[in-house]
Automatic annotation (TrEMBL):
Keywords of the record: Membrane, Transmembrane, Transmembrane helix
Membrane-spanning ranges: 52-73, 80-102, 108-131
Taxonomy of the source species: Bacteria, Bacillati, Actinomycetota, Actinomycetes, Pseudonocardiales
Taxonomic source organism: Actinophytocola xinjiangensis
Protein name: Uncharacterized protein
Amino acid sequence: MAYAAAGLFLVAGVLALVIAIVGWNGTSDNVDMLVALVGAAFSEEFTGNLDFAISVTMSVACSSLSLGLVLLARVDVVRWLLAFVGALTSVYYLYAVIKLLADGGGEYIAMVLVSLLLWIAATVVVVLPGTGRAMRGYQRRLAQYGQPPGYPQGYPQGGYRPY
């Protein structure tokens, strides 16, 4: 499960990176990709252009890619960092879908929906109990192989009495 979560976040990160590269200068003819930039729904309120959205998309893409690669090593804290990034990005894409539908942009919603479903799937998989068990099981196996073979497991029966 940990590998599946890492894979989903890597795919989501690559998709976000592609979206950011396509919209790099904000003058692309592909409107589907421009509206899929993370933060594009807020760009008019903050800066009036897509520079803010491109920066946020690049940040989300690079952080999810790097954390996804670290998750392959089964570092438990990265699991929760990815869950946080994925939840924030999923909430934004949900807001973007609602805003696009309310503003009459239903014809440009395809890439936003694909991104929303991918981020939700990655976030759900990373917080599943099976992913946590897979990560803890890996840590237990590492700890188990730390002792030489034939070494007694646990404490002696009588315990240690220093007197």
